[in-house]
Design goal:
This protein is an alpha/beta fold and 277 residues long. It has a single domain, classed as Rossmann fold (3-Layer(aba) Sandwich). It is built from eleven helices and seven strands. The protein has a seven-stranded parallel beta sheet with strand order 3-2-1-4-5-6-7, with helices on both faces. Helix 1 links the parallel strand 1 and strand 2. The longest helix has 29 residues. The termini are far apart.
């Protein structure tokens, strides 16, 4: 088994975040589960603890309610994690929101800005809180969850797409700033996954009107389980992929294979956010 890591996963109570937390816990890592719903993260923590007992693993899980858009709440989350585990080796910024659906000029202002706030401000606040710890420890890993709209336009979901494109650039820039500290920063795209977020796009009146292309993708069976993203993140967390820091990965990518071709990846437009002239 890989050396045990001390990990924070945001949005860990359901969907992709839950799958990530369970995967990392099953691998023997200690996981701080963050979300606004205490009941959900308590349940995930109990699952991790039960599995650890059944297989004799040293994995630990602690549920810490937190609002990723509130600086005080984020700092309390990090302080509690350090108190429980003694440090933070890995941060997985998974918490996200997609609520502003429809033509950009018709969307609710609070919903539009709320999507950007959770999807961009949240990761920034978490990074701001954990990076000094990682620098002091001599390294670490940060994984930012991106998604639809990061690499191409996302009609009728402009706030979400804009936020994820911004988070991709944030990832790339942060990786440059942290290179000398041996801190890896990655962006991961889970692919199309059926979650509460996609149900909003499928079941609400706005979603049924404006997000028919998403429904068609589900009908065509191109969606995938959340465990695919969880396994990818476990690979990035447990391996040494520092040379690929700043790049984005999808659930079909093999980081080890990409590392062998790292010189080409540096110039691969599919792995970084670039503007074509």
């Amino acid at each position: 088994m890989a050396q045990s890591k001390r990990i924070i996963v945001t949005g860990a109570g359901r969907g992709i975040g839950r799958a990530i937390a369970l995967e990392l816990g099953a691998a023997g890592h200690s996981v701080a589960l963050a979300a606004r719903s205490r009941e959900q993260i308590d349940a995930v923590a109990a699952e991790i603890a039960a599995r650890a007992r059944s297989i004799g693993s040293g994995a630990r899980a602690v549920a810490i309610p937190a609002d990723v858009t509130d600086r005080g709440s984020v700092e309390a989350l990090v302080q509690r994690t350090v108190g429980e585990f003694g440090g933070v080796d890995v941060l997985v910024n998974n918490a996200g929101r997609f609520s502003a659906i429809g033509p950009t000029w018709e969307t609710d202002v609070e919903s539009f800005w709320g999507d950007i706030t959770i999807n961009v401000l949240g990761p920034y606040l978490l990074c701001r809180a954990v990076i000094p710890l990682m620098i002091g420890q001599g390294g670490g890993t940060i994984v930012n969850m991106i998604g639809g709209g990061a690499a191409s336009p996302n009609p009728y979901g402009n706030a979400y797409g804009t936020s994820k494109a911004g988070l991709t650039r944030f990832t790339e820039t942060l990786s440059k700033e942290l290179a000398k500290h041996r801190i890896s920063v990655f962006a991961t795209n889970p692919g199309l996954v059926r979650t509460d977020m996609t149900e909003l796009q499928l079941q609400t009146d706005a979603g049924k009107k404006w997000m028919t292309h998403i429904a068609k993708l589900f009908e065509d069976g191109v969606d995938r389980p959340p465990t695919d993203a969880a396994r990818l993140i476990r690979t990035l967390v447990e391996g040494d992929y520092f040379e690929l820091s700043g790049r984005r990965f999808g659930p079909d990518d093999d980081p080890a294979a990409l590392l062998r071709d790292a010189k080409r990846i540096v110039h691969d437009d599919l792995r970084v956010l670039r503007f074509r002239e």
